[in-house]
Design goal:
Structural class: alpha/beta
Strand content: 15-25%
Order of helices and strands: EHEHEEHHH
CATH architecture: 3-Layer(aba) Sandwich
Strand order of the largest sheet: 1-2-4-3
Helix content: 40-55%
CATH topology: Collagenase (Catalytic Domain)
Number of strands: 4
Number of domains: 1
CATH class: Alpha Beta
Number of helices: 5
Distance between the termini: 22 Å
CATH superfamily: Metalloproteases ("zincins"), catalytic domain
Length: about 150
């Protein structure tokens, strides 16, 4: 079982990968699931918009697209994240870039676990679950070393 990080079409390197991996595993375990093969691909707005068109028939920018390969309680998938859109969102929401990236990263995992966000009630639940996960980061990270 592994969690991997790659960049595609952009120059981006996630710092403190082991800390992120530990946090993701803790978040998955908090939902009584087991981490399988999870791959994060950090990419550009144009790349993710192209994927959004091709695979979801949506013609707009998004921050994350998740491809779910989970089986039973084992959580696996590919999570594509637009670093461009994360930066834009951080500005819109007046949020620290590192916090916004963590939120989007765990958002993808929550989709793999089975949570949706299409309806308003689901969006509200998703935000609560994201916040819960961010609190787990704070508990496990005493030096707040970031991305």
């Amino acid at each position: 079982m592994s969690i991997r990080f790659y960049s595609q079409e952009i120059e981006f390197k996630l710092k403190n990968k082991n800390l992120h991996k530990s946090w993701i595993r803790i978040c998955i375990a908090a939902h009584d699931r087991i981490p399988g093969e999870i791959t994060y691909i950090f990419t550009s707005n144009s790349s993710l918009r192209g994927m959004n068109r091709e695979y979801l028939n949506h013609d707009y920018f998004t921050d994350v697209i998740t491809f779910d390969y989970s089986e039973g309680d084992v959580i696996s998938g590919d999570i594509f994240i637009s670093i461009d859109q994360v930066r834009i969102n951080a500005g819109i929401y007046n949020e620290d870039l590192e916090e916004e990236l963590k939120r989007v990263m765990i958002h993808g995992v929550l989709h793999l676990i089975g949570f949706g966000d299409a309806r308003d009630v689901e969006k509200k639940q998703m935000r609560k679950l994201e916040n819960d996960a961010l609190h787990l980061w704070l508990k496990g990270d005493s030096d707040d070393s970031g991305i």
